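Fold this complex.
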Amino acid sequence: MKKAVISVQNMCKTYGEGEGAVTAIKEATFEIYAGETVALLGPSGSGKTTLITMIGCITQPTSGKLTLDGDLMYDEAWKIDDTRRIRREKIGFIFQAHNLIPFLNVMENVTIVPQMNGVKSDAANQTAKELLDYLGVGDKLTKMPSQLSGGQSQRVAIARSLANTPKIILADEPTAALDGERALSVMQLLRKLAHEQAVAIVVVTHDERMLPLFDRILRVEDGVVKEELGT
Amino acid sequence: MINLAWRDISHSLGKFITTALGVGLLIGVVLVMIGIYRGMVHDAMIVPNNIAPDLWVVQKETLGPFAESSRLHEDLKYSLKGFEGVSAVHPLTFQGVQIHKNGKPIRVYALGYESLSSFQPFTLTSGTAIKIRNREIIVDTKTGFKLGDEVHLGRNRYTVVGLTHKAVSSGGDPMIYLDLREAQELQFLFSNEQIRNDRERGGASNATAMVNAFSLTLKAGFDPKTVGDEIQRWKHQEVYTAQEQSDILTKNLIERSAKQIGMFTMILLIVSSVIISLIIYTMTMGKMKEIAILKLIGASNMLITKMIAQQSLLMGAIAFAGGALFANASANYFPKTVILIPSDGLKLFAVVIIISILASLGGIRSALKIDPASAIGG
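Structure:
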């Protein structure tokens, strides 16, 4: 039996109150399993970012239930005291514009996450080096983000997202700033990671060319989340 | 754990240090202001300390001779010598005058003393004391005169026979020392025309045998307060102990200046703290995206607070170091004495550190308010 790493049940998000209230996500219910790559598709303003920030324990849902890696995170209220700890320990984030910390070098950008989890610097460095080697940027350890190309930066960002051995990776348009070839390479890499390391990967994307690389597609329109059949 | 504050600073080290040194100039001015106050207190005490009396006798109901003008008949010294416990009495005159060197006016403070006695209210660095009453003068090196130079004073010319160094009045004017008789002429002798006019008016006095104060040395074992009370009781003059005279100088005479300097120092400290706050706030605002990312990947509030507070503290510390260097390098170029005391520096350092911590609060508050979701586009 497949294990649901992300379980969302009847989750809603409403901004504002009364007549001005806007419902960004309406009764979303789905599950995402370990090793799966799932695309979150939808036009701008459809609620994709709201959904991903709720799964990432950044935005508090208005109602519903959220379970991550078997732990109940939200059930009409947060069930955990420290959402940042959950993010540090269970979730990796990849952004559209890589969003590396500009004043940290490649190695430090990756080791900062395990170090925040209390991993000693030697062990964190070892893990980071292995990850960066695996992602093909092992020769850039001491480079600053400004000295990397877009593709290299995104690989470092992926290494950072993996540095805490997360169960979930949430990626927000990770290929938007890359050309077709590099975008394809990054997506193939994410897919490989998902399968090899049993990580559930949720990717917000507009790029229809990448859709064949996903196991499933969730389409968000006007706050309604629907699974596309036949994917 | 990676030190985020230091990594951020080292990423733009030149900018950070330049900014901190800019603030350092303000801190340096604060140190100099405190040094000016210390210098004022020091200068005010140079003359009394050189005279080093046990008691000062001045005109009744005055705070003379430094804080208020005081006039006494010189022959009072004979009766003062008669008091039990008094070992020596030195009549003194004090007068602010203006002399010229190479056509440029110089404000000086003239002290007249009995030059032919063993009493020397100064410390010579070169030359000799006044040996004969023949228009000899001792001047401070700050006047620019050298041994053998001629100084025009009143209607006479004096020859420089001795030099002192850093002997100044409470106002910071360099000291000159004259024989008492010649100092009395300078202060009390009217012009011939005025003397004639006064005679016509009906016999105004032209007594020059006046002094401004007496300094009294007591025999060992006598209490200055007791002897002073006796003098006050019988001679109807004002008597101050050395400590009382010191208090008059430091508390009364320069109190207003000290308050002025204190106010200015406070304003500078407030300006410094506002500037540090603005710099730290601006630096933090410039890192909002990075802080949002850090929060998103799970950085604790403590880690972010530490980063901003450490930067603020480092800015304060560099600013203080720069300020201290500036103050020490510039202290000798000020026209008045500037005395920099390590304990003042330490106290100011503590104040700067407190200011730095307070200055970081605005930036920390804004950083903690940042929504980590702002790191995600869409």
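The interface with chain B takes residues 44, 48-49, 52-53, 56, 58-59, 84-85, 87-89, 93, 95-97, 99, 101-104, 108, 111-113, 115-117, 121, 144, 160, 164, 172-173, 204 of chain A (CB under 8 Å).
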